[in-house]
Amino acid sequence: MLHHSSSCLKWMLALAGVCLIGLPQGISAAEPEFVSIFDGKTLDGWDGNPEFWRVEDGAITGETTKENPTKGNTFIIWRDGMTGDFELELDYKIIGHNSGIQYRSFEVPDMKWVVGGYQADMEANDRYSGINYGERFRGILADRGQKTVIGADHKPTVVETFGDTAGLQEHIKKEDWNHYRIVAKGYNFVHYINGVRMSEVTDEDKEQRRDSGLLALQLHAGPPMKVQFKNIKLKQFPAKKVSAKENDDDKKVVFIAGKKSHGYGAHEHKAGCMLLAKALEQNMPGFESVVVTNGWPTDKSVFDGADSIVIYCDGGEGHPINQHLDEVDAMMKKGVGLVLIHYAVEVPKQPSGAKFLDWTGGFFEMNWSVNPHWTASFDEFPDHPIANGVKPFKINDEWYYHMRFIEGMKSVTPILTDIPPASTLERPDGPHSGNPYVRAEAGKPQHVAWAREREDGGRGFGFTGGHVHWNWGNDSHRMLVLNAIVWTAGGEVPEEGVLSSTPTIEELEANQDYDKPADYNPARIQKMLSEWKTALAD
What we know:
It is built from 8 helices and 29 strands. By secondary structure, the chain is of the alpha+beta class. The chain has 2 domains: 15-236, Jelly Rolls (Sandwich), CATH 2.60.120.560; 251-527, Rossmann fold (3-Layer(aba) Sandwich). It is elongated and about 80 Å long. β19 (251-257), α2 (269-283) and β20 form a beta-alpha-beta unit. It has helices at 165-169, 269-283, 325-333, 349-359, 436-439, 475-488, 505-509, 522-537, and strands at residues 3-4, 35-36, 46-47, 53-56, 59-64, 74-78, 86-95, 98-107, 115-123, 132-135, 139-142, 146-150, 156-161, 178-185, 188-193, 196-203, 214-219, 225-236, 251-257, 287-292, 308-312, 337-341, 362-363, 374-378, 393-397, 404-405, 412-418, 446-453, 459-463.
């Protein structure tokens, strides 16, 4: 299953949990504590449509009016973590209509600020507060006063009735503050309002149940309404140190997408990772993808069981890995793979660059490497699994080159190589634009993607393309990176490569960090997709 997150997400197993909030020193993993995830002043760490969400009177406030309705249910999403096994406590007040708390949820493709998953309901009327509702996810899972078990038919069966719905409603205050508590452990979910159990679900639907996912707050479409949330505290439980993989051939890949960067269609880390993760899962049986967005996970347990880590982010001094070198090095020594995409290949020379030389065999070194935009032609490929099925292709991108490679290219195999045109050196010297060393190499072949198999058995891959988001629509470009992810995870790359459907324009537009600009021209993108398709078919 494909999981999306904001700054972290967790591979979990049945009846196990995840700790996605870093625990204070002195607190053991078996004794987690509540952590505030809303500062009471700003929406830092939260992501919602600013037309509807704000902070008012120390509370996250969502409001629609007759003049400003929402066309569909919209959510404000917590981007600083994800929910696995947890307890959540908050106070809420609702005036008009319906709302809810989403947990272990997923983002709906092509729909911004829309999620689906388990939901703890609340409303201004007398019917739904406290129920467990599967938003875009099987409908009502347990009514108020019910304990249910969801079976393989995806439907809930009532196994206990512990309260009368009207009687339970009496514990809920109208247009006033109420206290909500959600307890999710394994696949058992209990909702409490003002200390009273309202519903309980045990999800035994192995096909559709979710072990981790997003936390979000809902603003419902329909009549005008206002909902507020404050004193939001989360307690996460650590995962058991047991593999969730069904067999040794199963692979877990953790994608780390950096924060928003350049603007629409460029450095779209989240959208790119989600697209690659989806293609990987759909076309490589036994592979599961975890997508962490908005930077480095707040809890290293997200990496438990990882076979490879894919990092797609802004780099340099701000590279998120700079503060986690020892943590990553320990994983590399265990044979975990590493894929670095575009700006993620750039780090300071010391100490991060030295680590990159070991882990992947190369990196972008300032005042040595350069970052011009140019059209590269890749006509020949090495006899390497990463090149399986890849057809010659030509593509314009910000192809960094003149990488700093490990001495003697030890255990490094160049994957993509071309001779950059003289125009790539027309810029004056600068940390990224030019230098005497690269000018001395003018006219010589340059490697813009490479692979390294380390002595510890781990594998690394560097790829300098990826600035232009639309380029993921090129089948060879995308296949090569998917092949590399499989290879670094220790999987067997199919002889024909990792085949995946060419993304539609709508799929490429999905999950981007920025809204479409006024001058965005989808016809140009479609023309490019068609031209690539024709060229690869020849």
